[in-house]
Every structure is written in structure tokens, then in C-alpha cells.
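Hello again,

I reread your note about wanting to compare the complex against the isolated chains. To keep things tidy I'm splitting this into two emails, and this first one only covers the full assembly. Below are the input lines as submitted, including protein chains and any nucleic acid or small-molecule components. They are followed by the predicted structure of everything together. The single-chain runs will come separately.
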Amino acid sequence: MGDDGAERRPAGELEAGVLAALWAAEEPLTPGRVQEALGGSLARTTVTTILSRLYEKGSVTRIRSGRGYAYSPTEDAPGLTARRMHSELAKDEDRSAVLARFVSQLNDEDERMLRSLLDGGEAG
Amino acid sequence: MTYLVLIPLLMPFLAAPAACRVAAVLPPRRAAWLLTAAALVLAVSSSAALVLLVVPGASYLPAVAVLGELAEPLTAGPPPVTIALALVAGALLVWRTAALTAAARRDRAELRRARTVTGGTDDELAVVRDDRPDAYALPGRPGRIVVTTGMLRALEPPEREALFAHERAHLRGRHHVLLAAAELAALCHPALRALREPLGYALERAADEAAAAAVGDRRLAARAIGRAALAARGVPGLSGAVRPRTVLAATAGPVPRRVAALLGTGASGRPALTPRTRRLVAGALLVCLTLSGVSAVGAASDLHTHIEIAQGENPER
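Full-complex prediction:
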């Protein structure tokens, strides 16, 4: 069973996690495989509910798999627009005012320091 | 002529470094607000000072004299100096206004483009099919998290949750508004450019802290950032490709500092200030900002008096 903390989060946030798992996978996933991929943080029924909702919205497609369905993400309008914009923005040097990247570029010294920090963090 | 008007023009050279110093020791959210507020106060004061320098010189123009019902030009100082100052200040004002307009128009266009992404479904996540790991928050109504398949595959599911929480914090805190304000302020005075990089860092740190709180694990949040950065660097063939250099991607290397801050290892690379020095610098900054605003207001009231004299009134009456 999933823990209560995860179950109480807003539906939109849970959907993002499930959708990300489908995108990260190379092939269509059954609800059971999705639950596995998420490390069991969500209950199976929750995963099934979220997948049906994503399917109704057109964010995922599904194919018959055994007695149930296997799901994969569709490249819908937002995805396509996002991709177009992504390549457009990649040309633009000055986008800092609107967009903040998750991680900025590393130099050699950064990489060395980061690796030692992460190693230390994992050991400690 | 009054020298009061020069204070707001020179103050940013003193106040901007002080603000950076104070922000470096404040919690991220407060640091972000301090830097934005300092940028705005200094930008507005210095722009007002330029306007105040233009007016006395402009009063020599017959058309302005008629419009302002002036009996004679303002007696703000020796005419050649007044006119020369007004010309320089006027040129600067025109240049700034043009730069500000262009920047504001560009920002609006970017946001409008961003909003077109929100068409279609109401998914929070906009996934881009691209092997290069990348992720960012796209403001709009509603805001989106744009993430590449490369980034999703580089991270473990709990790390992805930390990434999403980080981007949600950017969107909920409307961090792009603060960044845009600092960006516009930097166009008003060259010394204010120095505030953008610490503001970007403070906003990333604020989002990191929000992510750590959301996933309930600081080490997990730190690992997500570190692994994402290493994955983005480790992609073969990407090193030659030009990735846009943003203000956030300063050579100072903010990523290890962010990771260190989350892990609490204190490898900030910046010597900590003693509480006494911290209070002194914070006090000095407050004095700078107040002085900048007050001297702009003082110079304006001074100019008002000069205008009344030029209109033939006697303010001593």
C-alpha cells in the first residue's frame, strides 16, 4: 500500500508523477508496472484511477494487455507546442527573465566538487 | 544647483554590493525579496534623478518656458553646466526608455508564446522528446513544468518528484516576476546588473528548499539536483553544442553551492560574516536605500522651488 502522505497530495501532482513514469519507460506500462516504477509510493487503485483520468484527457493511449490495459504517453498538443517552443528558446540567449532552468551548466571544478558532495552525502 | 540629485545616481555603486553581501547570509526567500526591492528602489530613484537633471536645462527652451509659464530659465546653476548636464541626462533617459521598452516587449512576447503551450489538455507536465536532460518552469495560466525525456530517464522516481516540486515552487512563487523586475532595473543603472546573479541564485535556493520540504528529505532533493546537473553534462556530443547561457548559469558554479546548502556541509565558498558585521552591512544598506529615495524626493522639492521662482513667485513670502 502507498503511504498516506503521497495519497493526500493534489491529483494534478500525482498525475505528473505517473505521466513522468510512462515517459521514462521505453514501452507501454500496465498499472502494476507503473506502480513498480514509482517505487510503490502509490496504491495500485490510485495508479489505476490516475491512468484512467489521463486517458480520458487524451494524455495517454492504451492497448489491450492480458486482462487489462498497458498505457503509453501521447504526444498531444501541449507536448508538440512545448517541443516547438523548446527549440525556439534554445536559440534565444536572453530567456532568463521568463524561464529558470532546474540546473545550470557545470564547469570541471563544479563537476569534481559535486561528485565529492554526492558521494559524501550518500556515505554519510 | 543642488548636489542632492547626484546621490541617487551614485548610490547603486555602493548599495548594490552591500545588497549582495546581505543577501548572501539571508534565508533564500528573504534574500530574493531584498534584492528585488533594492533593485527597484535604486532604479526608480536614479531614473527620477535623471529627470530632475533634464528639467532645468529644458527650461532654456522657449517652448518649455511658455508651457511652464516661466518668466525666466530656472536658476539651477551656471547655464553652460545646467544645459550640458541636461543634455547628458536626457540622452541617458532616452536610451534607457528605449532599452526598457524593448525588454518589456520581448518579455511579453516570450510569455505570450509560453501561454500557447497551455492549450489542449490541462496537464501540468509538458514533456519534450529530447535526449538532452533539461527542465524548467514555464509561467502562464496555468504554469507548466517543461521537462525532456532525457531528464525523466536520468532521474529516479523520487528524484523526479523533487524536480517537479522545485519547478512548482518557481511557478507558485511567481519567481519569473522578480527576475523580470531585476532585469528591467539592471537596464536603468549599470551597477544594478550585479544584483541579477544573486537573485537568480536566491530563487533557485528558495525552490530547492521548497522541494526538500515537499519530498521530506533534504538529501534526496540534493541528489536530484546533483544527478540532473551531472547527467546534463555527461551527455556525449552535447559538450560541443551551444546551450544558452543564462544569468543563472554563471561561471561561479551555483549547482555545487545549492547541493552543499541542502546537505548542510557549508561549502558555500564564501566566508561567513560575524553577526556584528552582518548588522553593520545590513544597516549600511538600509541607509543607502533610504538616502537614495530621500535625496531624489529632496531634489524634486528643490526643483519645485526653483520652478516657482522662475514663474515669478516668491516662495519666501
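For quick reference: The first strand of chain A starts at residue 60 and ends at 65.

B.
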